[in-house]
Amino acid sequence: MERSPNLQSLKTILEAGPLECEAIMAIVTQLAQTLQREHEQKLAHLYLCPKNIWLDSHFEILELRREESQNTAYLAPEQHHGREVGIHSDIYTVGILLFEMATGSIPEGGERPSDRDADLPPWIDALFDHCYAPRSRRLSDGAHLLRWLSERKNSAGFRAGMEVGSEVEETQSESVKVTVPRQDVFINPEEPQNKRRKINLFASTLGLTCLAFGAGFIAMAGTADMSGLSGHVGGAFHRPAEAPWAQYEKALALYQMGQYQKSRSILDDILGHQANFPQAYHLRGNVLTELGHMNAAIVEFDQAINLAPDNAQAFLDRGNTQVYLKNSKAAVRDFQMYLKLAPRAANNAQVRGWIAEIKKNGQL
Questions:
Q1: Are 102 and 226 within one domain?
Q2: Cβ pair 247, 277 in contact under 8 A
Q3: Long-range contacts of 247-250 (CB under 8 A, 24+ apart)
Q4: pLDDT per residue as tens digits for the range 165-207
Q5: CATH code, domain carrying 266
Q6: What is the extent of the structural domain holding 281?
Q7: CA 334, CA 153: separation in Å to the nearest integer?
Q8: Taking the model in full, what pTM does it have?
């Protein structure tokens, strides 16, 4: 498709450095308007990145494309980790784009825009906190993002360069079910964010377009992964008769709905009374991963594997978490063990591809 010579991609514009705050607000507002239209149709974009955003000289977005990119740095954690994706994934990417427009680079770890530039107005940090956050604590969709922006722009504090109230004003009290082309996604806006997830986007350095985010693996993670937490993929099915399964199933349901803190509280209570429960350790490992506590998650996966050494899914999940921690050798070992324990799993070709990419990129 030919583009007007007056249009430039956001990628090209950002090569000159960070943008002025007025331009950032204009671009984010238009992104919110575009996402609102898509999200109202229960569609997720999923390919937001600077090269797909085309603007005119007045920073008006005239084209928003859906071209896939080899750069995985703009993907949400659930896309990296093979979890359920949806409109909440777009909001996370808006946070990354906001950070880059304000600072000239993408976020690393738990830093905020003001950590790179202390002169930025507080509203940028506040908005970043509500986008670049665990799924259950993000602004829920494009409409919620647009409301947040409108309220701040109309406030006297914003016009004076000051943020009035950094708390997310939730207007939805129930889970909202939306649909993306391959699956259903549940979004449940909870309490305002008080902790930012520290994500290490090691996967982006591998150039893995489909590191646990391909459609086939997303489908597997949404189904087999969940059954793997009730039993597991590969090997015998360990189900301690004395374990509190009703509580566990509730924790699993909360996890699937993105209510990670509530799920963790139940799991903490379960494991405080029942130590011989590999599925609970496995699930708590996934919960901690979603909350950004990667090292703690590894400990949980270790315990799950010690109790059920033929739990293939636990090896796969631990391997993915090792990738985030840049423990490439450990990740490869876990992926290889997954292949050994689940030789007929539907995603084996993808797992072999991840191993090959890690080796190809000299990470071993």
A1: no
A2: no
A3: 248/277, 248/279, 248/280, 248/283
A4: 334 433 333 333 333 332 222 222 332 333 323 222 233 333 3
A5: 1.25.40.10
A6: 202-360
A7: 49
A8: 0.47
